[in-house]
């Protein structure tokens, strides 16, 4: 079992344990300067065109471009098999506000991620950052999570979008989009 440590900067949330993809997540209330987070994001997301592999299915490749004006980062994907925009096309990062926007919804910074063991789905120790949005109302809930990290072993960037929406107690939308590039 791998351990991920989050340091929370916006809101102090009690320590929690979350099991997902072979990781144990522990919240730690340590703040990081916004400028350090911005530099880390820019280092992990260089501008230009690249090919990404779906992390849990390395056979599927996605061609994407990353663009930035210094205050915001956008993603563009090229997939001729689908006329619909991918979830990545609907995603941007506002570097000034330190928020991730997915389909118009703002995800706030949840903390730094430190994976201390290479016994995980990515088979590498890695570090990064996470943004999230959660909303619960009776039988309805929405949970969005955006994780961005750098693998120690290969230097690859790991970008993971998770969306879970439940309406009237039933699964409405369930997306797990892990990319390596």
Low-confidence stretches at least 5 residues in length (pLDDT < 50)?
1-30
Distance between the termini: 24 Å
Helix content: under 10%
Strand content: over 45%
Please count the helical segments.
1
Q: State Rg.
A: 16 Å
Compressed to H and E, one letter per element, the order equals EEEHEEEEEEEEEE
Total count of domains: 1
Shape: globular
How is the biggest beta sheet arranged?
Answer: 10 strands, antiparallel, barrel
Structural class: mainly beta
Q: Could you give the order of strands across the largest sheet?
A: 4-5-6-7-8-9-10-11-12-13
How many strand segments?
A: 13
Mean pLDDT rating:
79
Keywords: Signal
Signal peptide: 1-27
Keywords, please?
about 180 residues; ten-stranded antiparallel barrel; signal; about 60% strand; single chain; mainly beta; 1 helix; 13 strands
Describe the structure in your own words.
This protein is 6% helix and 59% strand. The protein has one helix spanning 34-44; strands at residues 2-7, 17-20, 23-28, 48-54, 57-68, 72-78, 91-94, 99-102, 105-115, 126-137, 140-151, 157-167, 170-180. It is built from one helix and 13 strands. The protein has a ten-stranded antiparallel barrel with strand order 4-5-6-7-8-9-10-11-12-13. It has one domain (2-180). The chain has 181 residues and is mostly beta strands. Residues 1-30 have low confidence and may be disordered.
């Amino acid at each position: 079992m791998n351990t991920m440590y989050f340091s929370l900067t916006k809101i102090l949330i009690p320590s929690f344990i979350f099991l997902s993809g072979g990781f144990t997540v522990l919240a730690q209330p340590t703040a990081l300067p916004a400028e350090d987070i911005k530099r880390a994001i820019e280092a992990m997301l260089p501008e230009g065109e690249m090919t990404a592999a779906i992390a849990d299915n390395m056979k599927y490749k996605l061609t994407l471009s990353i663009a930035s004006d210094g205050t915001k980062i956008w993603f563009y994907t090229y997939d001729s098999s689908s006329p619909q925009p991918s979830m990545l096309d609907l995603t941007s990062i506002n570097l000034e506000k330190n928020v991730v926007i997915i389909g118009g919804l703002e995800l706030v910074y949840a903390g730094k991620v430190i994976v201390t063991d290479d016994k995980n789905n990515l088979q590498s120790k890695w570090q990064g950052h996470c943004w999230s949005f959660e909303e619960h109302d009776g039988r309805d809930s929405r949970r969005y999570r955006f994780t961005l990290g750098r693998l120690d072993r290969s230097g690859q960037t790991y970008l993971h979008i998770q969306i879970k929406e439940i309406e009237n107690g039933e699964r409405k939308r369930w997306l797990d989009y892990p990319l390596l590039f």
